[in-house]
Write a structure and sequence with these properties.
Pfam family, one: ATP-synt_ab_N
Protein name: V-type ATP synthase beta chain
Family: Belongs to the ATPase alpha/beta chains family.
Radius of gyration: 26 Å
CATH topology of the largest domain: Rossmann fold
Strand order of the largest sheet: 9-15-14-16-17-12-18-19
Distance between the termini: 91 Å
Structural class: alpha/beta
Function: Produces ATP from ADP in the presence of a proton gradient across the membrane. The V-type beta chain is a regulatory subunit.
Keywords: ATP synthesis, Hydrogen ion transport, Ion transport, Transport
């Protein structure tokens, strides 16, 4: 028989204190009944003996110390799950907000998830095509991977997130593919932009959308990514779908966690964030993966904005320790009008080598990526030299590198909203490499060069004029 407690011992912000509570559990759900009969929900945030600190989701305004009735539900927060979730829009706590009524649930699951046995994990292989050359070729997203996007203030990470959701697909179309998208702490116009973009692109039927607005309770913001991941695990491990989870902005989530921790009176850590921020982020990121007991997979792209573009800030710093690489957006490229402004050199996908090549993308993928990366890195060295001696004093080879760098940024990075296949991306990469003298391509075997190096084609494609430089260098 469930007990109902009448009255509260204290109200502090969004927290209430209830004393003489027996057998309460951490994160147990709580129901409040106000004097006028309206109901609110909460969650046990802290337990000290028989004293419970409860976070109220809808806020404490209107609660009475004497008349409020409290009932402990006896279980943690659960999310109703069904295949009908596809195409629906929910708030940060998993309640439908699209006007289509409640979800007919096949089951409910704890939003904190079930631990995936390390023995049952399958090493991530094969890739998800995002349609973006700089990601697909140089920082390939592998199924089951967690690959964050490091952005900054004013950079187009929302636009990039929408483009990834619109273009993403898996190689074998016979298996289901779905996207779970979660937005945390966004304004109404940004939320409407996400929703409208997915509907106009015709991908809403394969998308589950969670929207937490900036004026919603902060505790709801801390639940949003967990609700999204619970939905993803259901689709992947019970319906054998490949699921891509995109959630933004992790920094908003961490700031909500900091405020929540401060309201409980916890001792702050670095920059005021709670000391358990690392383990809390790990509890989200580590829910990506593949189980040998299911055919599906959960792949994550968390997006975070770095305060003051500081990569040593606690949020990107801890994220980098847990995840398998990062995609970094570059403010200088964005200032030049290049979209998407992916900074190639600081970006990395640690699992890329095991999910590309013959049988996955194309046999020449690794060679092309290695050479593009090496050449673009050399371009930065030449730019540094140019700032000292001027471009006119550069050697003929270095001038070709400068030309390669300009073409690489204009044609490879700056693709706009175009959706490129992996074949188109790699062919474009070889075209760009063919701008350089063949002798400069020292990361590729001669057999591969014989197949893909074609300087005359590059001259025609990019309208080059100084072809005599290459001829002189190749004599």
């Amino acid at each position: 028989m469930a007990l109902q407690y009448v009255g509260l011992d204290d109200i502090n912000g969004s927290l209430v204190v209830l004393d003489h509570v027996k057998n309460a559990s951490n994160e147990e759900m709580v129901e409040f009944v106000l004097k006028d009969g309206t109901k609110r929900t909460g969650r046990v945030a802290e337990i000290e003996g028989e004293k419970c600190v409860i976070q109220v989701f809808e806020g404490t305004r209107g609660l009475s110390l004497t008349n409020t009735k409290t009932r402990l539900i006896g279980e943690p927060m659960k999310l109703p799950l069904s295949m009908e979730m596809l195409g629906r829009v929910f708030n940060g706590a998993g309640k439908p907000i699209d006007g289509l009524g409640d979800l007919y649930a096949e089951k409910s699951a704890d939003i904190n998830g079930q631990p995936l046995n390390p023995v049952s994990r399958v090493y991530p292989q094969n890739y998800i095509n995002t349609g973006i050359s700089s990601i697909d070729a140089l920082t390939t997203l592998i199924r089951g991977q967690k690959l964050p996007i490091f952005s900054g203030s004013g950079l187009p990470h929302n636009q990039l997130a929408v483009q990834i959701v619109k273009n993403a697909r898996v190689a074998n179309d016979d298996q289901g593919f779905a996207v779970v998208f979660a937005a945390m702490g966004v304004t109404n116009d940004v939320a409407n932009y996400f929703r409208r973009s997915f509907e106009e692109a015709g991908v809403m039927d394969r998308t589950v959308l969670f929207l937490n607005l900036s004026n919603d309770p902060i505790v709801e913001r801390t639940l949003t990514p967990r609700c999204a991941l619970t939905a993803a695990e259901y689709l992947a491990f019970e319906h054998d779908m490949h699921v891509l989870v995109v959630y933004t902005d992790i920094t908003s989530y961490c700031e909500a966690l900091r405020e929540y921790s401060s309201s409980k009176g916890e001792i702050p850590g670095r920059k005021g964030y709670p000391g358990y921020l690392y383990s809390d982020l790990a509890s989200l990121y580590e829910r990506a993966g593949i189980s040998k007991y299911a055919k599906g997979s959960v792949t994550q792209i968390p997006i975070l904005t770095m305060p003051n573009n500081d990569i040593t800030h606690p949020v990107p710093d801890l994220t980098g320790y847990i995840t398998e690489g990062q995609i970094t957006l570059d403010a200088d490229l964005n200032a030049q009008g290049i979209y998407p402004p992916v900074g190639v050199l600081p970006s990395l996908s640690r699992l890329m080598k095991d999910g590309i090549g013959e049988g996955f993308t194309r046999a020449d993928h690794q060679d092309c990526a290695n050479q593009l990366f090496a050449c673009y890195a050399h371009v930065q060295d030449v730019k540094s030299l140019t700032s000292v001696i001027g471009e006119d004093e550069l050697s003929d080879t270095d001038k070709k590198y400068m030309e390669f760098g300009r073409l690489f940024e204009q044609h490879f990075l700056n693709q706009g909203d175009e959706n490129r296949s992996i074949e188109e991306t790699l062919d474009l990469g070889w075209n760009l490499l063919s701008v350089l003298p063949r002798s400069a391509l020292d990361r590729v075997d001669n057999k591969v060069l014989d197949q893909f190096y074609d300087h005359e084609k590059a001259v025609k494609t990019f309208g080059l004029k100084e072809d005599h430089i290459i001829k002189e260098l190749q004599k």
